[in-house]
């Protein structure tokens, strides 16, 4: 009986030690900054709020269908270490455009909000990170991305997938 009790005690001790080691080695969830920099992102949706008025007088909030195909294949990369890269993809809208434009980015946390500042060619754009996972990035900005200068404050929401 002592052997069985000793065996049971030894087994329980080893099992407890193994469980403790497993907990210590469990991977920590990735931070939003790590998720952002883990992928090359491709835009899949773009909305405007309030909507923008077309030349025909219609107001639209889903502006992704109006983006030229030569822009839809572009990619954005927020590399670890703060390097930003935007690539024209397989097709360029203007053959004289550079294939790749580089700059810097920084992650900014304000309270519960996560943000990204991107600086390219002296121009800074501020984004609020709405959601970031291993496969999707959603950000918004009130910066005038398209140089429309409509006089109205417009918030653009951009959705990217890896």
How is this fold's topology laid out?
Elements: H1 2-25, H2 32-37, E1 40-53, E2 59-62, H3 69-72, E3 75-79, E4 83-87, E5 100-110, E6 113-120, E7 123-132, E8 136-141, E9 155-161
Antiparallel strand pairs: 1-2, 1-3, 1-9, 3-4, 4-5, 5-6, 6-7, 7-8, 8-9
Give a description of the structure:
The chain is α+β, with helices and mostly antiparallel strands. The protein has one domain: Lipocalin (Beta Barrel). Helix content is 21%, strand content 43%. It contains three helices and nine strands; from the N terminus they run ααββαβββββββ. The protein has helices spanning 2-25, 32-37, 69-72, and strands spanning 40-53, 59-62, 75-79, 83-87, 100-110, 113-120, 123-132, 136-141, 155-161. The protein is globular.
The total of helices stands at 3
Number of strands: 9
The coarse silhouette is globular
Strand content: 35-45%
- Domain module tally: 1
Radius of gyration: 24 Å
Helix content: 10-25%
Derived from helix and strand composition plus strand pairing, the structural class reads alpha+beta
Write down the secondary-structure element order: HHEEHEEEEEEE
Which second-level CATH architecture applies?
Beta Barrel
- Walk across the major sheet and give the strand order: 1-3-4-5-6-7-8-9
Q: Which topology does CATH recognise?
A: Lipocalin
């Amino acid at each position: 009986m002592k052997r069985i009790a000793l065996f049971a005690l030894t087994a329980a001790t080893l099992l407890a030690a193994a469980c403790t080691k497993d907990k210590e080695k469990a991977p920590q969830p990735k931070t939003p900054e790590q998720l952002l920099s883990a992928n090359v992102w491709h835009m899949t949706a773009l909305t405007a709020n309030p909507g923008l008025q077309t030349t025909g007088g219609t107001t639209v909030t889903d502006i992704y269908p109006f983006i030229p195909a030569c822009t839809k294949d572009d990619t954005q990369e927020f590399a670890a270490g703060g390097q930003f890269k935007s690539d024209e993809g397989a097709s360029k809208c203007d053959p004289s455009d550079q294939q790749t434009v580089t700059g810097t980015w920084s992650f900014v946390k304000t309270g519960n909000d996560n943000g990204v500042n991107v600086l390219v060619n002296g121009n800074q754009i501020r984004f609020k990170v709405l959601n970031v996972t291993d496969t999707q990035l959603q950000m918004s900005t009130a910066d005038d991305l398209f140089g429309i200068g409509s006089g109205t404050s417009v918030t653009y929401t951009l959705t990217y997938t890896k």
